[in-house]
Amino acid sequence: MLRLDGATVRFGKRAVLDDVDLEVADHEIVCVLGPSGSGKSTLLRVVAGLQAADAGRVLLDGRDQRGVPVHRRGVGLMFQDHQLFPQRDVGGNVAFGLRMRGEAKAEQARRVGELLDMVGLPGAGRRAISTLSGGEQQRVALARALAPEPKLLMLDEPLGQLDRGLRERLVVELRQLFGRLGTTVLAVTHDQGEAFALADRVVVMREGRIAQTGTPLEVWQRPASEFVARFLGFDNVVAATVSGEAADTVWGKVPVPAGTAQGEARLLVRPAGVRLVPVEEGLPCAVTGRTFRGHHVAVLLQPAGAPLLEAECALRDAPEVGAEVGVAFAADEVVVLGAAD
Ligand SMILES: Nc1ncnc2c1ncn2[C@@H]1O[C@H](COP(=O)(O)OP(=O)(O)OP(=O)(O)O)[C@@H](O)[C@H]1O
């Protein structure tokens, strides 16, 4: 449905989108993630036609979009500042694309009713925009973007300004809605929780390039590089020399999965693989912090003369700050990362 071939955008000498290849299949939901300034919005703007590519191609349904203006690309856009028309009521906003297309009034009214039902705002057509909550406005913006039945819907930080609870609820609703409608979606967010909950596939960007792409589970379980691992919030990363089924590190011997290439490597030990044992049976550490994370506690551990480690502990097993504990590592939570970066 969508293909980018070597898409490149330069501002001055700097490539903010650097030779990007990406394919999005029919009905797929793809979320682009990455730190601020990594080129996520520029990627969307190139696909939408709001930004010309300096090199490379954008193809929609196999057709090169060079020279095709925004409104002829058949893509729906929903941006962070959803820019509803404040002087029109909800129905007037949702009907916008249909009116532009010259649909008959009765058909417009039918579609508006249907879309408002779909986004969970039945009967809200006559309400003024100023009377809606942030989440309701977001839904109206979504209904407006969906109204012309775009073949590709593009969302830029769709839930950006909403509070956490509402975001978590809306993200589930959106996924269900897109599944039901068979909408193909390309979304940009810097919130990994949102991306992982919404996407069939995530794309992690770094400095205008794709650092990794995969299903949420693949990326979460096997971050391809130290950059991706740290971006996802994993900080137990260490230089290692692999020999047999263990590696020498500043944290002592760390077991590695069978079949790991021998020699120099960077290892990630996911916090779930940092196990607490009696102090004499493992790497001695002092507990320096505890952060409640809902279903577990993140425990910060300081070994003598080596970088901090984070462990994931069940609520009832989490030691107090100041306690001395031992640490052992579980091979199934150790990931060998790609080239050091
Ligand atoms: N019109 C422009 N002129 C010059 N530089 C630009 C322009 N638009 C974007 N940039 C730069 O390109 C880089 C990528 O911007 P982009 O908005 O794509 O990043 P992003 O990943 O979406 O970031 P954020 O999460 O902060 O929105 C940034 O460093 C930005 O300053």
UniProtKB/TrEMBL annotation:
Listed GO MF terms: ATP binding
InterPro entries associated with the record: AAA+_ATPase (IPR003593), ABC_SmlMolc_Importer (IPR050093), ABC_transporter-like_ATP-bd (IPR003439), ABC_transporter-like_CS (IPR017871), Mo/tungstate-bd_C_term_dom (IPR008995), P-loop_NTPase (IPR027417), Transp-assoc_OB_typ2 (IPR013611)
Domain ABC transporter: 2-232
Highest taxon, organism lineage: Bacteria
Keyword ATP-binding: yes
Keyword Nucleotide-binding attributed: yes
Annotated protein name in UniProt: ABC transporter ATP-binding protein
Record key words, sorted: ATP-binding, Nucleotide-binding, Transport
SUPFAM superfamilies reported in the protein's UniProt record: MOP-like (SSF50331), P-loop containing nucleoside triphosphate hydrolases (SSF52540)
